[in-house]
Amino acid sequence: MKLRKIILAGLLSIAIFVVSGCWDMVDIDRRFFVGNIGIDKAAVDDKLKVEFTMPIVRKISGEGGQGGGGGGSTIASVSTVADSIHAAARQMSHRLSRRLFFEHTRVILIGEEAARDGIEGVVNFLSRNTEVNRRGRIMVVKGKAEDALKVKNEYETLLAMYIANIFENWTFCSKFIEITIDDFMKSAYSTQGNVLLPRLTPGKIDVSIGGAAVIKNYKLVGWLDENETLGVNFVLGKVRGGDLTFKQQGEDYPVVMSIVQISTKTELVEAGTYPKFKISPRIVADIVETPVDMKIDASMIKSLEKDLEEKVNQIILKGVKKLQKEFQVDVLGFGEYLYKYRPGIWEYYREDWENIFPHVEVIVDTKATIRGIGASL
Amino acid sequence: MMMDDDRISSEQAIALIVNAAIGVGILSLPRVAVKSAGPDCWIVVLLGGLIALLGALVVGGIIKRLEGRTFVDYMSFVFGRPVGLILGVVYGIYFSLIAAVVLRDFAEVMKNFALEETPLEFFVLTLLLLSAYLIRHGLEPMARLMVVNFPFWFILSVAMLILSLYNADFSELLPFLRTPPEKLLQGALSSMLSLVGFEVLLTSAQGLKTVKDINKVMVVSMGIVTAYYTFVVVTVVVSMGIAETSRTIWPSMAVVRRISVPGEILERMDALAVALWVVVVFTTVCAYYFAAAITFTNVFRAREFKIFASILFPWTYLAAMLPQNILEVEDWLNFAGNFSILTCFLIPIIILVAGMARNKWGKKG
C-alpha cells in the first residue's frame, strides 16, 4: 500500500510537466500585433526595406490617465533593411521588447520600385508562413510604401483598419481590384504570376485606393487607371455597383446612372489564327441624376439605355485594349476560359498564348435595362 | 489469446474501418489527387475507392474462411507454418510502420499550425501513450470509442468544409476528363493508399461476433470513406484552385484557415480543425497500433496481449522519430503506401486463391 502511494505521488508530480501549461504560450502583453507590412526597395543593393506598424494598445485604451491617445500616435512603426520579410521580422527582435505577431495583419503594401523588381519573395513568404491572416489585403503603392504608412488622420484609430475598410466600399465603385491575400495567392499560382493588384496612392492625410497594378511574371509592369480598371472588372464579372456618368447631347449637366445588378458572360465566337471573344454584360441600372429639364418617359429611357450600353462598351474596350497593346498580359481570364471550357481549342493556342493574346479580337455587346428613376419624373 | 467476451458487432467493425481509413489523408489527399489528375481529381478518388473496395471484398472473403482461427494461423494452414509466421511478422511490421508514420505526420501538422515551439517528440509521445492506454483494454472498448467518436468529427469536419464553400469556384473542376487514362489510373492507385484501412480487420477478425455480414460491412465502410474523401477533395479544390492545391503540403488545413463567414462571426477555424485532427489521427493510430500488437501476439501464440502493446511502444516511437524533415515523412508515407499494395491487395489475393485451392484439393484428397 505504501509503495502504491509513493508511485502515485511520483506520477502526480510528473503530471506537472504535462498539464501545467503550454509550451508555446506568449502572453498577449508580450506581443506586438502587426497591422501593416510595408515593403520597399532599400537604397542598399538588392535589399528590402521592410516596415511594420502596430497599434500601441496602451494608448488606444487610454490607460494611465493619458486619455484616448492623448500622448502622441497610437501606432508605432519600425523599419529595417533586410534580405527578406522574415529576416526583417527577426532583425526586429534586436530592437523590440516584444514578439511580432502576424495573425492580425490586415494589409501588406508593396512599394512601386520593389514591385518592379519582383514580388516572388512576397508570394513565397505568404505561402510558407502559416501565421499571416489570409483574409488580409495586399496592394501596390504608387510611390513608396513607407509614405502610405506615414499617413495620419482622425478617421480611424488604426491605419490598418482604415486601409482595409476602404475595400468594403467596393460595392459602390468597382474601380479597384477587390482581392484578398488568399485570392491573390490562388491566381498568382494558377497564372504563373500574372495578376492585377489594387493600387494605393498615398496622400498627406489619407490614402486613395483605385485603379490597378498590372503584374506580369511576378513583376510590376504598369498601371491601369480607375476607368480602365472598371472596364476590366466588367470583363471579369466582378462589378458589384458603381456609377457611370455621361453627357446627353446639348446638355450641360451629365446623366448619372448607378449599377444595381450585373452579370457578364464571356464566350468564344470564332477560333481562327486568333480567337475572337464576345463579352456580353447584362446591366440593370438606376438613374441617380439628370439635367433638371430632362423629362423621363418611355422613349427617353430607351435612349438612355442605348447611351449606357455605348458607354459600357467603350469602357470595357479601353481597358481590354490597354492590357493587350501596352502590357500584353492576359489577366482577363481568356486563357483560363479556353482551358476550362474549350480544352480542345486551348491545345492549339497554349504554346504561343503570350503572343496570341495581344491579337485576340474582342467584341462587347452590353444590354442595359433601366429600372429605378428615383423620386422625380 | 484474447478474452472471449472481447467481441465487436458489425456496426462496430464499420466504425473501426472508417476510423482507421480516415486519417492523414484528409490533409494530403487533395494534393495527391490534384498532382496526378488535375481537374479530374474527384474521379481519381472515386476510382481509388472502387479499387479499394475490391481489396476489401477479398479481405472479407478471407475473413469468412477463418472459421475461428486467427489470421496468422490461417496463413500457416494455407502456406505452411514457416511462411505463415514470416507473413505474420510482415503484417506486424506493416501495421506498426503505418502507426508510426501517421503519428509523425500528425506531429508535423501540430507543429506547423498550432504549437510551433513544442518539440515533435512531445506530440508523438503523448498520443502514443494515450493509444497504448486505450488498446490495452482490448478490441471492444476501442471499437466502442470509435463508434462514439465517429459522428463527432464526421459532422463537424463536414460542416467546417461546407463553410469554406463561400467563395467556391466550381469551374476549377473543368475541363472534364482531359486527363490521359494512364494518369487517371496512376492517380487512382496513389489516392487508394489514403483509402485503405480495411486491412486492420484481417487481424482483428477473430473478435467479430459474426462474419455473416462481412461483405456488407466492407461495402458500407468503403462507401462512407470514399464519399467522405471525395467530398474533401472537391471542396478543397473548388475553394483553393488546382495550382495552389498542388503546391500546398496540407491543402485542407489552408482551406480551413481561410474560412470567413460574412459578418466575421466565424473566422479562422484552425483551432477547431486542429482539435478534430487530433481525434481523427488518434483513432487511426489506435486501430493500427492494436492491429500490430494483436498480430505479434498471434505470431508468438502468446497468452497475454497487453505485453505486446508495451513491447511495440518504443519501436513505434523510434520509427516515428526517424525521418529528418517533412519531405522524408512524405517519402515514408509513400513507402508505407506502396507497402499497403502488398498487404492489402497482393498477399490477400494470393491467400484467398491458395486457400480456395487448398480446400478443394483437401476435399479431393
Topology of this structure?
The complex is a heterodimer of chains A (about 375) and B (about 375).
Chain A: H1 2-19, E1 31-33, E2 36-41, E3 48-55, H2 57-61, E4 75-82, H3 85-91, E5 99-101, E6 107-111, H4 112-117, H5 120-128, E7 137-141, H6 145-150, H7 159-166, H8 170-173, H9 181-190, E8 195-202, E9 207-216, E10 219-224, H10 226-236, E11 243-246, E12 255-271, E13 275-289, H11 298-327, H12 334-341, H13 343-349, H14 353-356, E14 361-364, E15 367-370
Parallel strand pairs in A: 1-5, 2-6, 6-7, 7-8, 13-14, 13-15
Antiparallel strand pairs in A: 2-3, 3-4, 8-9, 9-10, 11-12, 12-13
Helix pairs in contact in A: 10-11, 12-13
Chain B: H1 10-21, H2 25-37, H3 41-66, H4 71-79, H5 81-113, H6 120-135, H7 139-163, H8 181-195, H9 200-204, H10 214-240, H11 242-245, H12 251-257, H13 270-299, H14 306-321, H15 326-364
Distance between the first and last residues' Cα of chain A: 97 Å
Task: Name the structural class of chain B.
Answer: mainly alpha
Quick check: average pLDDT of chain A?
85
**Could you give a short account of the major beta sheet of chain A?**
8 strands, mixed
Instruction: Return the CATH architecture of chain B.
Output: Up-down Bundle
* H-E order of chain B: HHHHHHHHHHHHHHH
Helix/strand/pairing category of chain A: alpha/beta
How many structural domains does the protein architecture of chain B include? 1
Quaternary structure type:
heterodimer
Count of alpha/pi helices of chain B: 15
Principal-axes shape call of chain A: globular
CATH class of chain B, anyone? Answer: Mainly Alpha
Shape of chain B: globular
Q: What share of residues are in beta strands of chain B?
A: under 5%
Structure report:
The complex is a heterodimer of chains A (377) and B (365). In chain A, 35% of the residues lie in helices and 28% in strands. Chain A is α/β, with parallel strands linked by helices and 377 residues long. Chain A folds into two domains: 28-224, no CATH class; 226-377, 2-Layer Sandwich (GMP Synthetase, Chain A, domain 3), CATH 3.30.300. Chain A has an eight-stranded mixed β-sheet. In chain A, strands 11, 12, 13, 14 and 15 form a five-stranded mixed β-sheet that branches. Chain A starts with a helix and ends in a 7-residue tail after the last strand. Residues 64-70 of chain A have low confidence and may be disordered. Chain B has 365 residues and is mainly α. Chain B has a single domain (10-355), classed as Amino acid/polyamine transporter I. In chain B, 76% of the residues lie in helices and 0% in strands. Chain B is built from 15 helices and no strands. The two termini of chain B are 32 Å apart. Classes of the chains: A alpha/beta (377), B mainly alpha (365).
